[in-house]
Structures are given as C-alpha cells and as structure tokens.
Design goal:
- The protein is 41% helix and 16% strand.
- By secondary structure, it is an alpha/beta fold.
- It has a 7-stranded mixed sheet, sandwiched between helices. Strands 10-9-13-14-8-15 form a 6-stranded parallel sheet, with helices on both faces. Strands 18-23-22-19-21-20 form a 6-stranded parallel sheet.
- α6 crosses α7, α13 packs across α20 and α26 runs antiparallel to α32.
Length: 727
Amino acid sequence: MPESSDAADPIVVGEQSHLEASRAALKAMREDALTLKAQGGNAVSTENLLAALRARAKALMDDPNVPLFFGRLDYGDSADAGEFRTERYYIGRRHVHDATGEPMVIDWRAPVSTAFYRATPKVPMGLDRRRRFGFAYGAITGYEDEPLSDAAGAAGGAASGAVAPAGQPGASRILTDEIERPRSGPMRDIVSTIQPEQDEIVRADVNVSVCVQGAPGTGKTAVGLHRVAFLLYAHRDRLRRGGSLVVGPNKEFLKYIEQVLPALGEIEVGQTTVDDLVARVKITAQDPAEAGVVKGDARMAQVLHNVIWSRLRTAQEALPDGIMIVRGSRRWRVPASEIDELIEATKERDVRYGAGRAMLAPRIAHAVLYRMEVAGETTDDRTQNAVARTSEVRKAVDLLWPAIDPLKVVFELYADAEVLAAAAEGILTAEEQAAILWTATRPKAPRSAGTAKWSSADAVLIDEAHDQLDRLPSLAHVVLDEAQDLSAMQYRAVGRRCSTGSVTVLGDIAQGTTPWATPSWAETLKHLGKPEAVIEELTLGFRVPRQIIDFAAKLLPDAAPGLLPPTSVRQQGGALEIDAVPSEADLVGTMVTAAQLALTLQEGSIGLIAADARVAEVAAALSAEGVEHTVLGSEPAAPAIEGATETEAELVESLLAETVGPRLIVVPATLAKGLEYDQVLVLEPAEIVAAEPRGLRRLYVVLTRAVSRLHVVHSAALPVQLTGTDF
C-alpha cells in the first residue's frame, strides 16, 4: 500500500493546497448565508426565516482542527465507473463547492461516496485508487493509497501483495490512528472509519427498520447516528416534514453524543430520553423491582384497555327512555335499543376511545335526521351539526361514553383493588395485582392523582392511556439506543412515535441490567410494532483493545449465558492492569494515585468508574489532593444563550462554542453505559456487582468502556469469573 508521512512530499503539499482552497470556499459559502436578510411577510415568518439562516450558518461552520475531507476516490476509465468515469472526488463531512458551483468536497452520504467504504480489490466499484489522509490539528500529515485496479497498481509501483480488508490489523495505519486518536469531551463522528458492514446499515432504505445487536466497541451508537444523518441527506423533505428523534438511556448519554450530528451538518434531530418522551407527569418516585416488572409488562396495555372501555354504559341501563330531541314544533325520539346499536357499531370499527366518543354525537344526530327526512322535512349537514350540539345529545354522550382523564385512570387502577381486579381478570395474577397497588409501592397512599408521586413506569402507563384514548402522532424516523434495558411498555411508547415511520434499534443483550431487560430482539421488535425489522449483528470490535474485551468477556457465561463472546481486531500491549490493594482503608488513596498517573501517561479522556455509593468519597479524595475532575451527572446546567443583541455571526459562534472540561471524570457505574474514555479506572468491581441484581452485567458494561487502557483497583476479591487470568 503506497504511503507517505512526509509533510514535504509533493503529493502531501498538493493535497494540503486543495484543503486550504476548500476551507476558503466553505468560508465563502457561510458568508453568503450570513449576508442573506430575513424578511418575511409578518413577524412570525421573519423569525422562522431568521432561524433557518442561523441553522444554515451553523451547519457551515468550519472547525480548523477537523479536516474537511479524509479521503479521495480516483475512478478509472472503465464501464464499471459509470457516470463517474475518470473523475476524482474528495470525500468529507459536508459538501463544499467553489464560486462556480463546482464541487471541491463531496458529502460522505452522496452515492458517489459509497465506494470509499465498500470497494475492494475483488469488487473495485469502478475505482482505480482509494486514498486516505492522515491529519494533525486540521493539516494533512500523510496519505495512504490503496490500488484497486491493475492500472492503479502499475502506476503506484509501491504496492505489494494483496490489500488487507479495511479495518483489519495492518490494513491502514491511518485508519487505526484515527480510531485510537485521544478524545476529550463528547463523542466524535466516525465518517472516516466506517467499515463496510457498518456502511450497509447506515445506508439502509428509509422504509426499512433495522435492529443492530453489537458488542462493546463495535460502533453501534455511531452507526445509528450516522444512519439518521444519511436519511436526512437522502430523504430530507420527508424527514423534515415527519421529524426524527434520537432516544437515549439518560441525559448524560445524550450530552456525550450531542455533537455527532451537528459535526455532520445536521442540527434538526431531536434528542430525548424515554422519561422525557412521555413526560406528562413529574417523576419523583421509584418503584420496587417487583412493581416495576409488572408495570413494564406488555399485559398492562390490555389492563388499561379494559379499564378505559369499562366506562361505557348502555342506553338500556342509563337512558331507558332513549333521547327526545325538540326541533321547532316537532319532537324526535331515538330509542335506547337503537342508541346501543350505534355504540356497538362504533366499537366494532376498532377506533380509539376518544375517536369513538367524538363519533357518537354525529351518529345519534344522523338517526334523528333519518326520522326527519322520512317525515318529509328537508335537512342538510348544518341540520345534523345543530342536532349533534343540542344539550340532549351532548348529555347523552357524556353519560354513555364519558370523557376520561388518563392520569385519573392510572391512579384509580392503583388506588382501588376492585377496579384493578376487574380490569386485570385473567391477565395479572393476584400477586401481581397486589404488587402495583399504591399500598405496596408508596409509603403513604396518595389521596388524588394531583398529589401522587409518579415513577418512570407510571409515566409510561399514563402515556399508553393517552394513546388508547387518542392516537399520538408519528415521526418519520426514530433511533433508539441502549434499547436492551427498556420494558415492553417503554418499547410501546417509543413504537407509537414511529408507527408510520421507521426505527433504528441499537443495543447489546449482554448489557441489559434492568430487571425487565429484553430477552431477545424479536421480542423487542414485536413490542415496538416492527416485527418485520431486519436484525443485523456487528461482531467485530474496533474500539476496545483485545486484552480488555477478552478480560470482560469472562463474565458472559454467567452474566449472559448463550451469547457468543465479542471479538476485537485491536491488539494493544499494556492495555490492561490489575492492582490488588491489601487493605480496604488504602483503596481510595490508591485510586487517587492511579488517577494522577493516568493524567501523565497519555492524552485524552479518563473515566474513573465506581459503584454509585462510592462516588462522593472518591470525588472528595480527588479534591483533597487537588486533582481536577468532574462528577458525571452533577455538572451545572449550561447557561441559556441570549441572542437578541448579537449579530447572526456572533450567535452562530456562541452556539458552536465548546467548553472543554477536566480530562478526569468520576462516573457512577449506573451511568457508564454507552460512554467511552481513552483510559478507564475501575474501583472495586465487587461493589459494582453487589449493588444490583444484575451486577455482573453492570460490571461487564463498566469494564468495556476503555478505548486504550483499563486499570482495575480492588481490595475485595474479584468476581471468580475474572480470577486466574494472566495480565
């Protein structure tokens, strides 16, 4: 593979010149956007236009430390090249054109860019050559050429032997260096290192729902984010109209990934947690595990259905004389039996409760109009609407098909054992019913829905009740990350947000740590309403070194029996270190020393992960020794940006300003999922395991957060699965 790391190499000099010209062109594109004036027909449209201009300018911001392009494609003079014959394209994070409109950098999502990720010597896709660039601080430091045709090999001269597949050991030093490049702050994009199997998922059709099972380090989160970025490029109008959303496990995770899509030029994708997605009540309580399991069970949807529809009353019972409508000098009576037939016909249409209620008044009015027409009176739509609005009809509807408050429905289920028993008959056992009553889940049973303290599981049930009353709107695409930890009812909550769209599900069964964690992706997809989704598995890890992943995988036979161990293609010496401390009293002090050492060993981020109950002690010890750090989950909220007095350019700059905090972050074990750090320090694995029922899975998550180095400090015995290992 011909390559060079000589900055004086004429090829490097020429490519640097193209980079500088591309930066100048991007600057001109942004200046053009900032000079546009927002002048709408009214104040609202002007503000909307101004917001669009701000978004456009923000998307065109240039980070001087990030290269505008990372690869080059040289298409050959062959029929396989098609419309790209003999063309040369630079592949980057966004499209850049010159003053005449000629492309200088091609967006990585464009069809022509597919070959950068998928072409091989056996299937060159029309390419003669693929070139990768090495960068440092935004400047080109070298390149690697991969000849993909006989003509390119002869021209390059330096190629020898077969070219190894991308991502395999020895295939590309530049690719490996990019994966191992130290990080600080939030997650980065992976556009320059996407592997062929990842690219196939990223470019999957917008109508296809995809479920990605991936072990730690396989890049599943990045794949999901890059997929929504690709869909926004390929189907922008559809996703802009329908909306797109990323759902993550917690706010700390969302902070970690929040810069990936903006770095790819996409700033219109919402990000939220399941709790915030269903936020109709304030979550201030936590259920016992037994109650949480029952409340999260899919059977609760049928229980809610039963209690909601039990509110219907028959006219024979509530209005035995039917309804009498007075119109002028005439009276029109609809008997109870006919009203009951109308109710049954409405129910048979399988509509939501709220829609059925809205249909009943017009149906009763239509029955009156029929009698009026038989009697020779002239009627029209206005007559029917007038009859439907009469007090007699409205009172009848309220009596027979009453309005329902979802909050009160859920409250009553928990408050009244008889109501719950009637709704759950044949669905929940007596023990399961008893587990979710207020008397079992709260120290003091609330007197009303307004004074109740609600849990996450309660909020999901309230959301389910809302949807059973009136269908919630659907988005065009939803990305659901760390999906393995959700309950069936939480899957239903996400699924109704993409009922007419598609979903990308990301997760790892082995990392499921909640009592209600999914047993299989097939089960998950059923609850999401996407049983037809394609299940893909990412098996090769590129981010976690082999020594670390092999060490952590020793937990899997007991933590997640039946799952194959993950595989890493990265072999990195000195990546794993285990320190046994003789005395528990010296444990935290030893960890502080280890943290100080980690700060001197290499650049990049450091995650010090401990059991949640130990975090405050560790943070205090670090502060006592003057070690700068932050505690994940306790950072103050960022100040609101006030842009009223700023110019558009200043506002865009402030929106993109990045504050880099301390390199060392103390991480509660329960918040570690989905995060990555260059170095990870793990304090007392036994405490992490003992803290929760699925502690071995939690420890597996914790041990697989390191990209370069893992250092475990313990005084208690390691879990037996990890003993007897050579380090």
